[in-house]
Amino acid sequence: MPATRLLQLSLYNIEVVFLGFSSTCFCGPPKSTHLYLSEPVPVSISHDPESNKISVTPCAAKIPLDKLCNNGVTKVFECFQASRVHPDRLIYCLAGILFIYSSPNPFGGPKSNPGYWVYEGTTAADLINFIISSAYKTYFGWKGRFGLDAVVLNANYVLGLHNETGSDKRLADELVLRGMNRSNHREFRRATMIPPNLGFLGVPDEAEDLNAVYFTMQDIRSKFKLD
User: Fold this and answer.
1) Which among 11, 95, 115, 118 is placed 20 to 30 Å from 206, CA to CA?
2) What is the pTM (predicted TM-score) of this model?
């Protein structure tokens, strides 16, 4: 008989209302649904070029963890590079969703010590490597697949914020700023800034110097609900 662990089973979507826009994104598992399952099976992240979306699929044979992580990073990059914006913008946008205390393991946790606090990288490449590797290590550490599913579902979600039919600039910009802030890839200033190369669809806003998108901290706290 294979060893078993207690794993939470179902995923759930919640309706997020942001500045008058209603969007559905993955936040985490319910706290009351459980099922005993066997040892986690190897899964890989795959990319569908036609739809430009990623998904989690079972592996035919066991693959070393480092290769699964490298493959996951590669597939996410392929997906993001096929979009209309800089891949780094999408990485920060993804971090802006995942790096909150209410996210599933390994990103969430107590407000005083959420999982994303252990991140110490300095580049967007470091950030996506941390996101993918942490999700895989949590899954194979018998702590559930919810972190990995959250990465995949929300990667597709942030792509949808930037496509022709589902674009939402105000929400996307706020998520990018939050991702940059919580990954410590920018310094706090009186005005927070999105670099022009990370602008929405490659078109910078009408900012004071026409080179960046600015939000004052007062604007952010009054207009956006930050955790």
Assistant:
1) 95
2) 0.73
Mean pLDDT of 45-56: 94
Residue with tokens 């989690």: 56
pLDDT tens digits for 129-164?
A: 999 999 999 998 888 889 999 999 999 999 999 876
